[in-house]
Amino acid sequence: MGTRWLLVAVLAIPSLAGAQDRAANGARGRAPTPPEITEEGTFYTVVSGDTLSEIAERLQISVDDLVLLNDGLNPDRLSVGQRLRVGSGRRRVEHRVVPGDTLARLAMRYRVTIPELRRWNPRMRGDAIREGRDLIVFTPLPASLSRSVGNANTGHLEHARQLPLHHPALFVRAPAHAYGTDETVSWLVDAIATVHREMPGTPRLEVHDLSREEGGPLMGHHSHTSGRDADVAYYRPNCNEPCTFRTIGPSDIDAPRQWALFRQWLEADRVEAIFVDYRLQRALYEQAVSEGVDRHLLNRWFQYPREEGNRYGIIRHHPRHANHFHVRFRCHDSDEECR
Ligand SMILES: [Zn+2]
CATH for 91-139? Predict the structure, then answer.
């Protein structure tokens, strides 16, 4: 007898809950409307009887994220007709802080503002961000299909993209070795195309090896396995179109164009390293100084004027880079296995 009663009680719970729900909906007299999707994001309009936790559950988003997405939202005081942002129209990223990260750099990298970063990460104090901590960012930058897996020396590449083979600003020497992540290809092409467009008379620039379509070991290289590395010729004054790989000295580099190329990647915080023969760095450094780049940035971006053996600086010496430079782009935030 006891067992049977228990069974009835258990069975009764769901239907009772359902009945209460129906009664509540009846009392409200108005069913929730579906969220409205716009370019600025996805929005939901509050109806009578809504609570934030119900909305969150219904739309499968966390209450915490709802609070982060809606500046000034008080979770206990929703009003009927209030418009809530329930999807950002942006991508949610958890950025793990690494040495060298600052709010300004993260804002630049994710195309957001510093006040936004502060709002999304309310526990952050001042400008200090602690290494190893995960920061929440809603970035307007798209995710990509390509995946860079592992590190540059032992990794591989999935869903690679190939450099455009007929582009007015660049010359691709080996199409079979011209694969990278979506970001590598677009960052490389966009920057070279910008120099070409903004500085009339710019010759095409030879791009040699990136990675193979599947990544992995590439003959003649230690890295280039994961779609984030590229070997590219230097701009020289009067090079016969296109500018190809050729060993050059300090007076042979076209510093204004070369710096115009590097500056785009450095300012957008897209590169981990640019290997440039030590003897060629001074001309680029002086170009940067003449354009008014501030001392902190010079210090972080250039190995020069430190000595050749000092490994500091994004633009730094590596043997055998007198006839081309090597650029390694950062892991994209959607590449979780990229090292
Ligand atoms: Zn290389």
Answer: 3.10.350.10
List every span in the chain annotated with CATH 3.30.1380.10.
147-329
Tokens of residue 170, six digits: 């660049």
pLDDT tens by residue, 288-339: 999 999 999 999 999 999 999 898 999 999 999 999 999 999 988 777 788 8
Residues near ligand 1 ion, CB 5 Å cutoff: 231, 326
Residues of the chain with CATH 3.10.350.10: 91-139
pLDDT at 20 over 80: no
The predicted structure's pLDDT at residue 14? 32
How do residues 113-137 score in pLDDT, each as one tens digit? 999 899 889 888 766 788 888 899 9
CB within 8 A of 44, min separation 6: which ones? Answer: 32, 33, 35, 36, 55, 59, 83, 84, 86
Tell me the CA–centroid distance for residue 326 and ligand 1, in Å: 5
Q: Calculate how far, in angstroms, residue 210's C-alpha sits from the geometric centre of ligand 1.
A: 8
Nearest to 152 by CA among 182, 181, 188: 181
- Give 174 Cα–ligand 1 centroid separation in angstroms: 14
Q: Are 229 and 236 in contact (CB under 8 A)?
A: no
Distance 334 CA to ligand 1 centre (A): 24
Among the listed residues 258, 247, 245, the one whose alpha carbon sits nearest the alpha carbon of residue 172: 245
The pLDDT, as a whole number, for residue 32 is 75
Which one is the CATH code of 147-329: 3.10.580.10, 3.40.50.150, 1.10.10.10, 3.30.1380.10?
3.30.1380.10
Q: Give distance in angstroms: CA of 211 to centre of ligand 1.
A: 10
The pTM score is: 0.68
